[in-house]
Model the fold of this input.
Amino acid sequence: MPVHETRDLLDPETKSDSVLQVIRALMCRSGLRTELARRTGLSIASVSTAVKTLLRDGVAQGGKKEPVVLLPAAGVAVGIQIGTRRATVSARLPHWRSDQARVSRLDLGLRDGAGWLDAAADAVADLVGSIGRGPGDIATMGLAVPWAVDPRDLSPSPPAPWFAAPDLHRHLEARFGQVKVAVDTDARLGALHEQTYHHPYETLLYVEAAEHVLGGLVVGPRMLRGALGRAGGVGHHPVEPGGLDCWCGERGCLERYISVPAVLEGMYVSARGRGEEPPASIGDLVDRAGGGDPDCLWALTVAAKRLVRALRASSTTLETQAVVIGGPLAPGLRLVAGTCEDELRRSTWTRHLTVRFAERDAAAHGALILGLIGHLR
Ligand SMILES: [Zn+2]
Done:
């Protein structure tokens, strides 16, 4: 049986819109026709017609009551998450399951200048090579960035943080040649990943708690962007009236209290005050908290309470069904998950809310999905 080229399968010139949508959905994950309808937003009749075409053309297989599965396709899908201090690369073939993706984690980020780009390009080449393919075989690429992305021109939405780089996806395109790079906010891509693979909720809010704090909303099968791409942003919810000044121009924003630097800074001051050595990194802080260190646990408890304050405010308007927390602070917040739950139960607006913790590298895997489905949904 001939192996289809991923680029050909995703060519909009040769496919009807519904066939293309079903192919993209299958590249994300195989599934029953009813599930494909839910994930694409198409009617079951449209999905059935599209699947019939794909079975006829030898692109997919699967009986009436069985999951539809994509047959082997050539061409590698790549996802990259770039942060201020780290980068993560994920790569797999389109017919592979998500958990078969190869992952590479780098301790280099935007604050290290252009150096991360070389390291990420090397990591992509290594991963693609480990799959048995070459650099020319990259079919799709998605990029997760730590700022809000304006859906109109893919530039950073104001107020953009100092490290925001407007043309990052174009630099990647130039670097890899021939590959169009789809870009979006890391939290939104984390939400897309969770909604696709783990938690098919009606409304899902994903919070990326890293050097920045961003939120991403998925409503049913759609990523909610907002007019300027800032929908779901919880990082700049005021949680302390008259609190600390924030770079965004407001005061008392959540990010000023629960970002990784803010939590470490708080620990630094209290530990030095007691003549103790403060945690060197967020991983160190989480390890100490896991070992029962009361000060580290307290820092995480305070962060959890502030996060819930912002979640309560956003849930009152959005009636979010589930919140998924990701990023380097997530393993720490998981240690004090009981506090999060208790705080949420206190309000009638958030009593129903389910709190979960993201799979590691969720935003990088979400970037890989974005590359497959393209910018527009
Ligand atoms: Zn702010």
